[in-house]
Write a structure and sequence with these properties.
Blueprint: E1 9-13, H1 18-29, E2 34-38, H2 47-54, E3 59-63, H3 69-78, E4 81-86, H4 93-98, H5 100-121, E5 125-131, H6 154-171, E6 176-182, E7 184-186, H7 205-213, E8 220-223, E9 235-236, E10 238-240, H8 241-256, E11 262-266, E12 272-273, H9 274-285, E13 291-294, E14 303-304, H10 309-315, H11 323-334
Helix pairs in contact: 1-2, 1-8, 3-5, 5-6, 7-11, 9-11
The structure holds uridine-diphosphate-N-acetylglucosamine.
Length: about 350
């Protein structure tokens, strides 16, 4: 018996990236047909094989840049696509300060061309990958979707501008969009066969914890222990990448039901400090993580976590996996003797 859902396929851009690949997997497990598009500029070429090992679903991989409007239009026209999930973007805050034009080109032009291709093809459902980086992080947490917006980097501004462009198209009556503002996605598929594997070295906390734990880097640098938080280290809202992926499936369901558009926080609603995360990591994995205390990182804030009541109310979605699972799954993927080998 086929598990394929009735209706058209879902086009996923940036499908081989970290959140993209876990979302492709979640869609396939739900019986969606998927067209998975990536240019592999910041993703590994073995991702399609990894996804295929985990789920024998209906997926077609297309190598293309989302800015190649003719190719995207051809894909949309030929495959009966009913919705698009748009991840394809550059995502490093630090790099965006050095290469702002590259960020606006990928993140804004990419979104514009995709929207134009969707309009030409008559596809009007979009799930957009946004970020909590659009919030003014100096405001008290938990932050709701109506919280103050302010971006400290070209990356953040590119996400906010893309949200605004999308919102103008929504207001013109040509598009329904659920934009998801992720807090701090971490972890990996529970199989240990799919995880975060960007081409560029990681700057985020969990992948750096894993590198230090594996002895593949210098000790973890903790950026500041003098913040106004319970233990002085930065507090964030870590959310399991599989829960983030499930939020996209829920967003598609919301769009298919004709509920219209929404802008939603995706997190757990819980703040966790760097030291708390390290402690949980060691408890769960049995591995000590060497660290040093360093000066604050420029642009960092003391505390940022989400109010997630809107996502629960509108999508009937909330994160199911806790901090222990996030650490266990991240390490199963990252540890040197782990399960990632395809064999
Ligand atoms: C960062 C980005 C943000 C992006 C998000 C998700 C910055 C300033 N912000 O957010 O725009 O949306 O990632 O990709 O880069 N930490 C350490 N040592 C490390 C790395 C991090 O102590 O080696 C601390 C940070 O100071 C922070 C916490 O860990 O308190 C989380 O850092 P990170 O994973 O980089 O996420 P954000 O700073 O929340």
């Amino acid at each position: 018996m086929s598990l394929r859902k009735p209706g058209g396929a879902v086009l996923v851009t940036g499908a081989a990236g970290y959140i993209g690949s876990h979302t492709v997997l979640a869609l396939l497990r739900e019986g969606h047909a998927v067209i998975a598009l990536d240019d592999y500029s910041n993703a590994q070429r073995d991702v399609p094989t990894r996804v295929a090992r985990l789920c024998a679903g209906d997926v077609q991989w297309v190598e293309a840049d989302v800015r190649d409007q003719a190719t995207v239009e051809a894909v949309l026209a030929s495959q009966g696509v009913e919705a698009v999930i748009h991840f394809a973007a550059r995502k490093s805050v630090e790099e965006s300060c050095r290469l702002p034009l590259a960020y606006y080109d990928s993140n804004l032009i990419g979104t514009l061309r995709l929207l134009a291709a969707m309009e030409v093809s008559g596809v009007r459902r979009l799930v957009f990958s946004s970020s909590a980086t659009v919030y003014d992080a100096s405001q008290p947490s938990p932050v709701t979707e109506t919280g103050r917006l302010s971006c400290a980097s070209p990356y953040g501004r590119s996400k906010l501008m893309a949200e605004q462009i999308i919102s103008d198209v929504v207001n013109s009556g040509r598009l329904d969009c659920v934009a998801l503002r992720y807090f701090n996605p971490v972890g990996a598929d529970a199989s240990g066969k799919l995880g975060e594997d960007a081409a560029t070295p990681p700057s985020n906390l969990m992948p750096r914890i894993c590198l230090a734990a594996a002895g593949k880097s210098d000790p973890l640098q903790i950026f500041g222990n003098d913040y106004d938080t319970p233990d002085g280290t930065g507090v964030r809202d870590y959310v399991h990448v599989a829960d983030v992926a499930d939020a996209h499936v829920a967003a598609l369901r919301y769009l298919a039901a004709g509920h219209g558009s929404a802008m939603l926080n995706i997190g757990t609603g819980c703040g966790t400090s760097v030291l708390q995360l390290l402690r949980t990591f060691t408890e769960v994995t049995g591995v000590d993580v060497p660290y040093t205390i360093e000066a604050r990182r420029q642009g960092d804030v003391a505390s940022l976590f989400a109010d997630v009541s809107e996502a629960r109310r509108m999508l009937d979605w909330s994160a199911r996996r806790g901090l222990a699972e996030m650490c266990a799954d991240a390490w199963r993927w990252a540890r040197p003797d782990g399960d990632r080998a395809l064999g």
